[in-house]
Amino acid sequence: MKFVDEAYIDIAAGDGGNGCVSFRHEKYKEFGGPNGGDGGRGGHVFAVADPSLNTLVDFRFSRRHEAKRGQHGMGSDMFGAAGDDITLKMPVGTIITDAETGDVLYEMLVPGEIVTIAKGGDGGFGNLRFKSAINRAPRQKTPGWPGERKSLKLELKVLADVGLLGMPNAGKSTFISAVSNARPKIADYPFTTLHPNLGVVRVGPEQSFVIADIPGLIEGASEGAGLGHQFLRHLQRTRLLLHIVDLAPFDEGVDPVAQAKAIVGELKKYDAALYDKPRWLVLNKLDMVPAEERATKVKDFVKRFRWKGPVFEISALTREGCEPLIQAIFRHVQAEQVAEQPPAEIDPRFAGGTDAG
Asked: Would the pTM count as exceeding 0.70?
Protein backbone atom coordinates (compact mmCIF):
# COMPACT_ATOMS: atom_id res chain seq x y z
CA MET A 1 0.00 0.00 0.00
CA LYS A 2 1.28 3.46 -0.84
CA PHE A 3 2.38 5.44 2.20
CA VAL A 4 0.38 8.65 2.52
CA ASP A 5 1.14 10.92 5.45
CA GLU A 6 -1.00 13.94 4.57
CA ALA A 7 -4.63 14.35 3.52
CA TYR A 8 -7.39 16.97 3.46
CA ILE A 9 -10.98 16.13 4.38
CA ASP A 10 -14.30 17.92 4.83
CA ILE A 11 -16.53 16.80 7.67
CA ALA A 12 -20.10 17.72 8.54
CA ALA A 13 -21.95 16.78 11.70
CA GLY A 14 -25.67 16.19 11.38
CA ASP A 15 -28.18 19.02 11.72
CA GLY A 16 -30.71 18.83 14.51
CA GLY A 17 -34.27 17.87 13.63
CA ASN A 18 -37.00 20.52 13.65
CA GLY A 19 -39.53 20.83 16.44
CA CYS A 20 -43.16 19.93 15.77
CA VAL A 21 -46.41 21.85 16.19
CA SER A 22 -49.20 19.45 17.07
CA PHE A 23 -52.29 19.27 19.29
CA ARG A 24 -54.07 16.36 20.83
CA HIS A 25 -57.23 15.35 18.98
CA GLU A 26 -59.29 12.97 21.03
CA LYS A 27 -63.01 12.38 21.19
CA TYR A 28 -64.77 14.26 23.97
CA LYS A 29 -61.63 16.42 24.57
CA GLU A 30 -62.22 19.71 22.86
CA PHE A 31 -59.04 21.31 24.14
CA GLY A 32 -56.47 18.54 24.06
CA GLY A 33 -53.48 20.80 24.36
CA PRO A 34 -50.09 20.85 22.57
CA ASN A 35 -48.16 17.62 22.09
CA GLY A 36 -45.51 18.49 19.51
CA GLY A 37 -42.15 16.89 20.38
CA ASP A 38 -38.59 18.16 19.98
CA GLY A 39 -36.35 17.29 17.07
CA GLY A 40 -33.51 14.81 17.54
CA ARG A 41 -29.83 15.71 17.88
CA GLY A 42 -27.69 15.52 14.78
CA GLY A 43 -24.99 12.88 14.57
CA HIS A 44 -21.48 13.62 15.87
CA VAL A 45 -18.24 12.96 13.99
CA PHE A 46 -15.63 11.11 16.06
CA ALA A 47 -11.99 10.24 15.37
CA VAL A 48 -10.34 7.18 16.90
CA ALA A 49 -6.62 6.32 16.99
CA ASP A 50 -6.34 2.87 15.44
CA PRO A 51 -2.94 1.17 16.02
CA SER A 52 -3.58 -1.22 13.11
CA LEU A 53 -3.35 1.63 10.58
CA ASN A 54 -0.13 3.20 9.33
CA THR A 55 -1.29 5.39 6.46
CA LEU A 56 -3.86 8.07 5.63
CA VAL A 57 -4.41 6.73 2.12
CA ASP A 58 -8.11 5.97 2.74
CA PHE A 59 -8.82 9.67 3.20
CA ARG A 60 -7.33 10.43 -0.21
CA PHE A 61 -10.13 8.47 -1.86
CA SER A 62 -12.92 9.51 0.50
CA ARG A 63 -12.68 13.19 1.28
CA ARG A 64 -16.18 14.16 2.51
CA HIS A 65 -17.68 12.59 5.62
CA GLU A 66 -21.17 13.47 6.85
CA ALA A 67 -23.14 12.30 9.87
CA LYS A 68 -26.91 11.84 9.70
CA ARG A 69 -29.28 14.64 10.70
CA GLY A 70 -31.66 14.23 13.61
CA GLN A 71 -35.25 13.17 13.03
CA HIS A 72 -37.96 15.84 13.22
CA GLY A 73 -40.27 15.96 16.21
CA MET A 74 -43.74 14.42 15.92
CA GLY A 75 -47.11 14.66 17.57
CA SER A 76 -48.26 12.61 20.54
CA ASP A 77 -45.28 13.88 22.58
CA MET A 78 -42.85 11.98 20.37
CA PHE A 79 -39.33 13.37 20.15
CA GLY A 80 -37.23 12.77 17.03
CA ALA A 81 -34.47 10.16 17.10
CA ALA A 82 -30.86 11.30 17.21
CA GLY A 83 -28.90 11.06 13.97
CA ASP A 84 -26.33 8.27 13.58
CA ASP A 85 -22.78 9.19 14.58
CA ILE A 86 -19.78 8.33 12.37
CA THR A 87 -16.29 7.36 13.51
CA LEU A 88 -13.19 7.98 11.40
CA LYS A 89 -10.28 5.61 12.06
CA MET A 90 -6.88 7.28 11.92
CA PRO A 91 -3.34 6.01 12.54
CA VAL A 92 -1.75 6.68 15.90
CA GLY A 93 0.34 9.84 15.52
CA THR A 94 -2.16 11.73 13.34
CA ILE A 95 -2.34 15.48 13.86
CA ILE A 96 -5.72 17.07 13.05
CA THR A 97 -5.43 20.71 12.00
CA ASP A 98 -8.01 23.28 10.92
CA ALA A 99 -7.23 23.71 7.22
CA GLU A 100 -8.46 27.31 7.18
CA THR A 101 -6.77 28.71 10.30
CA GLY A 102 -3.85 26.32 10.67
CA ASP A 103 -4.70 25.72 14.34
CA VAL A 104 -3.87 22.25 15.69
CA LEU A 105 -7.11 20.80 17.05
CA TYR A 106 -6.13 17.31 18.19
CA GLU A 107 -3.15 14.96 18.30
CA MET A 108 -4.01 11.27 18.25
CA LEU A 109 -1.17 9.87 20.35
CA VAL A 110 -2.79 7.12 22.45
CA PRO A 111 -4.04 3.89 20.82
CA GLY A 112 -7.81 3.69 21.15
CA GLU A 113 -8.16 7.40 21.98
CA ILE A 114 -11.47 8.89 20.80
CA VAL A 115 -12.14 12.61 20.25
CA THR A 116 -15.17 14.50 18.96
CA ILE A 117 -14.07 16.49 15.94
CA ALA A 118 -17.52 17.84 14.99
CA LYS A 119 -20.61 18.10 17.18
CA GLY A 120 -24.09 17.48 15.87
CA GLY A 121 -26.67 20.26 16.14
CA ASP A 122 -29.26 20.20 18.91
CA GLY A 123 -32.84 19.45 17.97
CA GLY A 124 -35.42 22.23 17.75
CA PHE A 125 -38.18 22.68 20.31
CA GLY A 126 -41.73 21.51 19.66
CA ASN A 127 -44.76 23.49 20.81
CA LEU A 128 -44.98 21.30 23.91
CA ARG A 129 -42.02 23.32 25.24
CA PHE A 130 -43.92 26.62 24.96
CA LYS A 131 -46.99 25.61 26.94
CA SER A 132 -47.69 27.86 29.92
CA ALA A 133 -50.54 29.06 32.10
CA ILE A 134 -51.13 32.05 29.83
CA ASN A 135 -50.36 30.31 26.53
CA ARG A 136 -52.24 27.05 26.51
CA ALA A 137 -52.27 26.60 22.75
CA PRO A 138 -48.80 27.65 21.56
CA ARG A 139 -48.02 27.43 17.89
CA GLN A 140 -44.33 28.18 18.23
CA LYS A 141 -41.57 25.80 17.30
CA THR A 142 -37.89 26.20 16.53
CA PRO A 143 -35.80 24.66 13.77
CA GLY A 144 -32.92 22.35 14.54
CA TRP A 145 -29.47 23.84 15.04
CA PRO A 146 -26.93 23.13 12.29
CA GLY A 147 -24.12 20.68 12.93
CA GLU A 148 -20.49 21.75 12.85
CA ARG A 149 -18.75 21.77 9.49
CA LYS A 150 -14.99 21.84 9.15
CA SER A 151 -12.22 21.50 6.61
CA LEU A 152 -9.38 19.56 8.17
CA LYS A 153 -5.80 18.73 7.35
CA LEU A 154 -4.59 15.34 8.55
CA GLU A 155 -0.86 14.88 9.02
CA LEU A 156 0.76 11.66 10.19
CA LYS A 157 3.93 11.68 12.27
CA VAL A 158 5.01 8.17 13.10
CA LEU A 159 5.70 7.41 16.75
CA ALA A 160 9.20 5.99 17.10
CA ASP A 161 11.88 6.12 19.77
CA VAL A 162 14.83 6.24 17.37
CA GLY A 163 15.16 7.79 13.90
CA LEU A 164 17.77 7.08 11.23
CA LEU A 165 19.49 9.85 9.28
CA GLY A 166 21.85 9.48 6.36
CA MET A 167 22.55 9.86 2.68
CA PRO A 168 20.89 7.49 0.19
CA ASN A 169 22.61 4.10 0.19
CA ALA A 170 24.31 4.72 3.55
CA GLY A 171 23.00 1.37 4.78
CA LYS A 172 20.02 2.51 6.84
CA SER A 173 17.68 -0.11 5.39
CA THR A 174 20.24 -2.86 5.93
CA PHE A 175 20.69 -1.72 9.53
CA ILE A 176 16.98 -1.63 10.39
CA SER A 177 16.44 -5.06 8.80
CA ALA A 178 19.42 -6.46 10.74
CA VAL A 179 18.29 -5.30 14.18
CA SER A 180 14.47 -5.26 13.93
CA ASN A 181 11.47 -7.01 12.43
CA ALA A 182 11.24 -4.51 9.55
CA ARG A 183 11.88 -5.82 6.04
CA PRO A 184 12.49 -2.80 3.80
CA LYS A 185 13.61 -2.98 0.19
CA ILE A 186 17.39 -3.23 -0.10
CA ALA A 187 19.36 -2.75 -3.32
CA ASP A 188 22.72 -1.49 -4.56
CA TYR A 189 21.36 1.82 -5.84
CA PRO A 190 20.20 5.02 -4.08
CA PHE A 191 16.64 5.85 -3.00
CA THR A 192 15.53 2.25 -2.43
CA THR A 193 13.55 3.57 0.56
CA LEU A 194 10.55 5.51 -0.73
CA HIS A 195 8.51 5.75 2.48
CA PRO A 196 9.19 5.48 6.23
CA ASN A 197 9.75 2.03 7.65
CA LEU A 198 9.05 1.16 11.29
CA GLY A 199 10.72 -1.72 13.08
CA VAL A 200 10.46 -3.09 16.62
CA VAL A 201 13.83 -3.96 18.14
CA ARG A 202 13.60 -6.71 20.77
CA VAL A 203 16.26 -6.32 23.44
CA GLY A 204 14.92 -8.88 25.92
CA PRO A 205 11.69 -10.16 27.46
CA GLU A 206 9.24 -7.23 27.49
CA GLN A 207 12.11 -4.94 26.49
CA SER A 208 11.93 -3.24 23.11
CA PHE A 209 11.96 0.07 21.27
CA VAL A 210 10.74 1.32 17.89
CA ILE A 211 13.09 2.54 15.18
CA ALA A 212 12.11 4.56 12.07
CA ASP A 213 13.93 4.75 8.74
CA ILE A 214 13.12 7.54 6.29
CA PRO A 215 14.29 8.04 2.69
CA GLY A 216 17.89 9.23 2.44
CA LEU A 217 18.59 12.95 2.51
CA ILE A 218 20.61 14.87 -0.03
CA GLU A 219 21.96 18.40 -0.08
CA GLY A 220 19.08 20.83 -0.60
CA ALA A 221 16.54 18.51 1.07
CA SER A 222 15.18 21.28 3.31
CA GLU A 223 14.23 23.19 0.12
CA GLY A 224 12.53 20.15 -1.41
CA ALA A 225 15.33 18.25 -3.18
CA GLY A 226 15.11 14.48 -3.09
CA LEU A 227 12.57 12.48 -1.11
CA GLY A 228 13.68 12.68 2.52
CA HIS A 229 12.42 16.22 3.18
CA GLN A 230 8.84 14.97 2.91
CA PHE A 231 9.40 12.64 5.85
CA LEU A 232 11.65 14.61 8.22
CA ARG A 233 8.50 15.33 10.26
CA HIS A 234 8.51 11.67 11.32
CA LEU A 235 11.73 12.24 13.26
CA GLN A 236 10.30 15.09 15.34
CA ARG A 237 8.85 12.78 18.00
CA THR A 238 11.88 10.52 18.36
CA ARG A 239 14.07 10.51 21.45
CA LEU A 240 17.32 9.83 19.60
CA LEU A 241 18.72 10.24 16.09
CA LEU A 242 21.30 7.89 14.59
CA HIS A 243 23.39 9.55 11.89
CA ILE A 244 24.53 6.64 9.72
CA VAL A 245 27.54 7.33 7.51
CA ASP A 246 28.91 5.20 4.69
CA LEU A 247 32.59 5.00 5.56
CA ALA A 248 33.47 3.12 2.36
CA PRO A 249 31.55 4.70 -0.56
CA PHE A 250 31.81 3.02 -3.98
CA ASP A 251 32.85 6.30 -5.59
CA GLU A 252 36.33 7.14 -4.35
CA GLY A 253 35.72 10.80 -5.20
CA VAL A 254 32.96 11.06 -2.58
CA ASP A 255 34.02 12.52 0.75
CA PRO A 256 32.03 10.98 3.64
CA VAL A 257 32.82 13.99 5.86
CA ALA A 258 31.34 16.43 3.34
CA GLN A 259 28.23 14.26 3.04
CA ALA A 260 27.83 14.07 6.82
CA LYS A 261 28.16 17.85 7.15
CA ALA A 262 25.55 18.33 4.43
CA ILE A 263 23.08 16.15 6.37
CA VAL A 264 23.63 18.15 9.56
CA GLY A 265 23.18 21.39 7.64
CA GLU A 266 19.88 20.26 6.12
CA LEU A 267 18.66 19.13 9.53
CA LYS A 268 19.38 22.54 11.04
CA LYS A 269 17.66 24.37 8.17
CA TYR A 270 14.55 22.19 8.42
CA ASP A 271 13.93 22.39 12.17
CA ALA A 272 16.16 23.76 14.94
CA ALA A 273 14.42 21.58 17.54
CA LEU A 274 15.14 18.48 15.45
CA TYR A 275 18.76 19.58 15.12
CA ASP A 276 19.05 19.88 18.92
CA LYS A 277 17.84 16.33 19.58
CA PRO A 278 20.38 13.83 20.93
CA ARG A 279 22.31 12.50 17.95
CA TRP A 280 24.83 9.66 17.73
CA LEU A 281 27.29 9.01 14.94
CA VAL A 282 27.21 5.49 13.45
CA LEU A 283 30.03 4.67 11.01
CA ASN A 284 28.77 1.86 8.78
CA LYS A 285 30.22 -0.60 6.24
CA LEU A 286 33.41 -1.30 8.20
CA ASP A 287 33.43 -4.77 6.61
CA MET A 288 34.55 -3.03 3.40
CA VAL A 289 37.51 -1.36 5.12
CA PRO A 290 40.68 -3.43 5.68
CA ALA A 291 41.09 -4.28 9.35
CA GLU A 292 44.47 -2.57 9.59
CA GLU A 293 43.02 0.70 8.21
CA ARG A 294 39.83 0.92 10.30
CA ALA A 295 41.20 2.69 13.37
CA THR A 296 43.01 5.30 11.25
CA LYS A 297 40.01 5.90 9.01
CA VAL A 298 37.60 6.28 11.94
CA LYS A 299 39.96 8.62 13.79
CA ASP A 300 40.46 10.75 10.67
CA PHE A 301 36.70 11.01 10.06
CA VAL A 302 35.88 12.04 13.63
CA LYS A 303 38.67 14.63 13.61
CA ARG A 304 37.66 16.20 10.29
CA PHE A 305 33.96 16.07 11.18
CA ARG A 306 34.78 17.72 14.52
CA TRP A 307 32.47 15.32 16.30
CA LYS A 308 32.48 15.17 20.10
CA GLY A 309 29.44 12.98 20.70
CA PRO A 310 29.06 9.18 20.90
CA VAL A 311 30.60 7.21 18.03
CA PHE A 312 29.75 3.62 17.06
CA GLU A 313 31.52 1.51 14.47
CA ILE A 314 29.37 -1.16 12.80
CA SER A 315 28.78 -3.29 9.77
CA ALA A 316 25.03 -3.62 9.24
CA LEU A 317 25.65 -6.35 6.67
CA THR A 318 27.61 -8.66 9.02
CA ARG A 319 25.97 -7.21 12.21
CA GLU A 320 29.42 -6.51 13.63
CA GLY A 321 29.11 -3.88 16.37
CA CYS A 322 25.28 -3.82 16.20
CA GLU A 323 24.61 -5.46 19.57
CA PRO A 324 26.55 -2.91 21.69
CA LEU A 325 24.79 -0.13 19.78
CA ILE A 326 21.35 -1.65 20.42
CA GLN A 327 22.05 -2.04 24.13
CA ALA A 328 23.22 1.58 24.38
CA ILE A 329 20.12 2.80 22.55
CA PHE A 330 17.83 0.85 24.87
CA ARG A 331 19.50 2.32 27.97
CA HIS A 332 19.12 5.82 26.52
CA VAL A 333 15.44 5.30 25.63
CA GLN A 334 14.75 3.85 29.08
CA ALA A 335 16.37 6.85 30.76
CA GLU A 336 14.32 9.24 28.59
CA GLN A 337 11.09 7.43 29.46
CA VAL A 338 11.86 7.61 33.19
CA ALA A 339 12.66 11.33 32.91
CA GLU A 340 9.33 11.98 31.17
CA GLN A 341 7.28 10.35 33.93
CA PRO A 342 5.68 12.78 36.41
CA PRO A 343 7.14 12.74 39.94
CA ALA A 344 5.39 10.48 42.42
CA GLU A 345 3.01 12.18 44.81
CA ILE A 346 4.16 12.25 48.44
CA ASP A 347 1.70 11.50 51.19
CA PRO A 348 1.36 14.75 53.18
CA ARG A 349 1.59 12.76 56.41
CA PHE A 350 5.21 11.94 55.59
CA ALA A 351 6.21 15.30 54.14
CA GLY A 352 8.66 17.49 56.05
CA GLY A 353 11.21 14.96 57.30
CA THR A 354 11.35 11.87 59.52
CA ASP A 355 10.38 11.29 63.12
CA ALA A 356 13.02 12.25 65.64
CA GLY A 357 12.16 9.57 68.10
From this structure: no
